[in-house]
Amino acid sequence: MVVHWRESCFIVWNVPAEVITASIMDERRVNPIPRPAGWVHVVIGPMFSGKTETLIHLAEQHPPESRAVFKHASDTRYDPQRVVSHAGTVLDATAASDASTLVDLIPAGASFVAIDECQFFGIGLVVVVESLAERGIGVLIVGLDLDSWANAFPVMDALAERADEVTRRSAVCAGCGRVARFTQRVAPIVDGNMIGGSESFEPRCQACWTPPEQAVVEAPLRIDASYRTDLR
Ligand code: ADP
Ligand code: MG
C-alpha cells in the first residue's frame, strides 16, 4: 500500500501536512541552509584548442565589477594586461608571477576569478584555489594539461582532481586534420624558453605528434616558493 505524504502526516502525527511543512520552513529560517560554496571549473587541452576563447566567453558572463581575470606574468606573447586568444578575442587581465601574488591582487568584491595559463603557476596555486572556493568564489582554471614532451603539469592534474567540472578541449591536428590532444614543438628550444605561439607550436594527434629531441625543460617548480599555509 502506498501512503502519501499528506495521509502519513495524519496517520503518524495527527496533524495536517501544511502544519508539518510550515514547521520545517521555520526550522530552516532558524538554522538556514549554508550558502552554496564556491566552485572550481578546469578547462584543459593542447595549444590552439580554444581554451582562452572559452575563458573570455565564460568571464564575460560575469559583471566586470565582480570578476577578476589573471594571466601568468611570463606569458608575454601578445599583451601584458590582457588575455588574448589565437583567434584575436581579448579581455582585460592582471598579470601575476606566482600564486601568492595573485591572491593579494583579487579585489574585495570579486565573486568570480579566472586564471589563464595556469600550468605556469607552481603547485602553490592549488591551496589558493581551494581557499577561494571555500570563500564562495567561483574559480575558472585554464591551462595546458601536457607539456611538449606529453608530460602532465602537476598543478593541472591536482586542480582537475579538485574540480567540480572539467572541460577537456581538443584542437585540429595540423598534420592530418584528426582530433589533436598534443602540442607539437616545431622550432628549436633556445635557452629553455618554452613560451611561444604558432611559430613554435602546433596541435597534433597521437599519430602525428613527436617529442622534441632536446632534453625535457622542467615544468614550473613542483613546490612553489609562494606556497601559503596561512590560507588553510
Ligand atoms: P588556446 O588558448 O587553447 O591555445 P585559443 O583560445 O587562444 O586557444 O585559440 C583558439 C583559436 O585559435 C581557434 O579557434 C582557431 O581560430 C585558432 N587557431 C587554431 N589553430 C591555430 C594555429 N595553428 N595558429 C593560429 N591560430 C590557430
Ligand atoms: Mg590560451
Give the topology, please.
Elements: H1 5-13, H2 17-30, E1 39-45, H3 51-59, E2 67-72, E3 82-84, E4 90-92, E5 94-96, H4 99-104, E6 112-115, H5 125-134, E7 138-144, H6 154-162, E8 165-168, E9 171-172, E10 179-180, E11 182-185, E12 201-204
Parallel strand pairs: 1-7, 1-8, 2-5, 2-6, 6-7
Antiparallel strand pairs: 3-4, 9-10, 11-12
Helix pairs in contact: 5-6
Determine the N-to-C terminus distance: 52 Å
Main beta sheet, described? 6 strands, parallel
Spans with pLDDT under 50 lasting ≥5 residues? 221-232
- Count of helical segments? 6
CATH fold-level assignment of the domain at 39-170 and 218-231:
Rossmann fold
- Helix-residue proportion: 10-25%
Overall 3D form: elongated
Give, in order, the helices and strands.
Answer: HHEHEEEEHEHEHEEEEE
Beta-strand fraction estimate:
15-25%
